[in-house]
Structures are given as C-alpha cells and as structure tokens.
From TrEMBL:
Originating organism: Pseudooceanicola spongiae
Record's protein name: J domain-containing protein
Amino acid sequence: MTDPFKVLGLSRDTATQSDVKSAYARLLKVTRPEDDRAAFMELREAFEQARRTVPVQLPIAEAPAKTSVETETGSQLLMPVRRIEWHYDDALNWNFDTSPKGKLSESVIRWMVAGGPDAATRVPAFAEARIALDKHDADAFLDQITEFIFAATDPEERRHTKPVWEPIEGTRPAWLTDDLIRALANDIGLLQVRPMNAYTARSFNTVQALFASVLDRNAAAAPVDVLEKFQHEQNEAYKDDHGSYFDRHQKAWVDLSPVGVAMADLKAAFDANADDMVETCKPILQREDIQALDEFQNLDNQLRFHIAEASGGNSGIRWPTYADWMTPDLLALLDDTFGWTRHFGNHPWERQQYDWLHRVLDRHGALSAAADRERARAREHAQAHASEPRRDARMPGILELFFARPRTLMITYYVYRVVQVIWRLAV
C-alpha cells in the first residue's frame, strides 16, 4: 500500500490536519479527474487516510500580550458575532442557511438540480470547499445533500408516515444522472460518512440503493442496519432499572416497570374478554407497586390513551365505537379507580381526551351511575354529621369583639381625646 504521507509530500511525524488539507488542495489543482482518473483516486484515498491518521491538534494557548486599552479601537476589541440566517426556497422545497456549510450545500443542490453543468470545473471546486470545512460541518454538509436527494426521491412524502425502519424505494429524479452520481460519490465524497442515527440511516440507504446501480461494486457504500440503530437509540434513551428494552423482532418497546407490567396484564385481560374480567382487573389495579403517585398517574395516562384509541377517539369520528370488552362494569371499575368523570383536564388536548372519555362512559350509563354514587356519598356524609350541633355561620374573629362596633369605637375615641387634654394640662 502506498504511504499516504509520501503521496501528499508530508512527514508522518510532523504533519498536522492543516498540513494535510493544504497539501491536498495544492495537489488537487494539478491532478484533475478528467486528465488522470487513477492518480486522482490515489490522491483522494491518500488524503482520507492521512486525515484519519493525523490526530486533531488543539491550538496551544499563548500568554496574552501586554496591550494598552487606550491604543485599541472598539472594532478591534469587540468582534461582531456572525449571525446565521435561514431562508426557504419554494421551488426546491428546502431550507438553506448563510453559514459556510449552508452556502456550500445550496450551491451543490442548485448545481445538481440544474443537471450538473460544468462538472470539470465545478466538482473540484466543491471538493476543495468541503475540505476547507471542519469535520463536523463537512459531515453535516454531506448529510444535507443526502437528505435532499432522499426527499427528491419521495415526492409522496411516505417518509413522514412509515416507521423509520421500513425502507422506502425512492423514485430516481430526472436530474440525477449517472455522471452526476459518479461525481457526487467519487469526487465530493457522498455516502463516505456513515450516518449517526436511524433517521439519517434510512436516507442513507435509499440514496445508496440508487447509487449502487451506477457505481462499481467496490466503490458503492454498504447499507446500514436501520433497525439496529433505532434499537440502540431507544435502549439508550429509555433504559431504566427494571430492564426495559426495545424488542427487535416485535419492533416495540417492552416495558418491564411495574406500570408496564400492569398495563400489559390489563390489555391481556381486555383481549381475553372473560366473564370474570372485572374480578381479574381489580387485583391488577390494586397492586402495591403502582399505588405511588407517579406510577398511579402513569397508569392513568396509559389507560386513558388506550381506551380513547380503542373507541376511535383519534380517528375523527363523532361518537365512540365500543369493543366487546368495554362493558359497563369494567368502565365503572376504572372510573371508581381513577375518577375520570370528575376530571376535565387542564390543557386543550387533555380536555378533548376527557370529553371523549365522558362520551364513552355515558354511552354505557357509567357516567350516570357515577353521578348517582356521588350523590349517595353526599347523603351518607350528611346523615353521619346530622347529629352534630350546628355552628354559628358568622365569621369568628375581630367582628365578634365588642369594641369593633361603630358606637363603641366612637365613644372610645372621645375618651381618648379627653384623657389626652387632661394629660397635657397636668404636665
């Protein structure tokens, strides 16, 4: 294998990231892909390998020079912060920004949509501009180009409705020619950076499938396991002390917390729809490990969402539809446990959900039954306290004191004035 540092004319021991970029930019001006394709690919491979080999060196902090404030101007002391602005292009249906990365992305995207004219001069310029960016911006630039091509292959926008792990067979746009694909992959370096998350991985795979039919087998990038990335992200984001995990085969989160286990048992009881379903669900709702405030509220939220979903609350219909397991006795049990008929929510979406639950409960008479139970409790409370002596309804305190009456206050004032006059005469 050829030493990449010899190709670039650098020393392995003393070369820095800046030296590698400068040497590559210098040699790129005399090594054109249209003149010598093999030499250009060798230079490109040497640059990538050298950049991975040389560690990123942070600048060493230098002692500040002794300067006088009087000799510095305001423009020299206070450098303005460059503001990044965004703008939307209706024709391209894409957002651009004014950062160096954003300007380069906009130039490349407009060049691609135009069919890739003047590739002999534009492509090397794009490659040099990408090298001038730092690694983070360079990777973000490639991701944005990949995302734009992915969006162009999905005009129906199925990517917004399908799960992230389901592949999308993109329709190749007319402007994405074979020559343009080769220039993007070989010269600009598209698909050379592996995606960081599941959503960019799906875009990566869609574009990779289009490029693989044009590029050589050795030059085409390998697809990414999107489901594996999504599984890793879910496990890192939602891991807990109970061992909950994302099941790759079921493509669902397995909640092993007390609330998750209780919810799974309740759903199993709902699906079984046995005659003793109420007797089956009551011990689940009374489990000790879900009686704490956080766990109880969490189970309440999950059950409300489940019943609203099962009765058509999210489908846009006006009146609920009822599954076989939604019996009046079961709904009455849930209402007694969580008090849904007495709650109306604080947020708009929560009020809408409670309004739907009230319709579900009222259809089976559970709402009326709950109101009857509330009235019965009120009567029992009134009867239990009927024998107690009735207290005075007046507010106790200063109003009940004798000197707080108007007449008493006036007499007290006159007595005070008389005593004050006598005291002054005596002194």
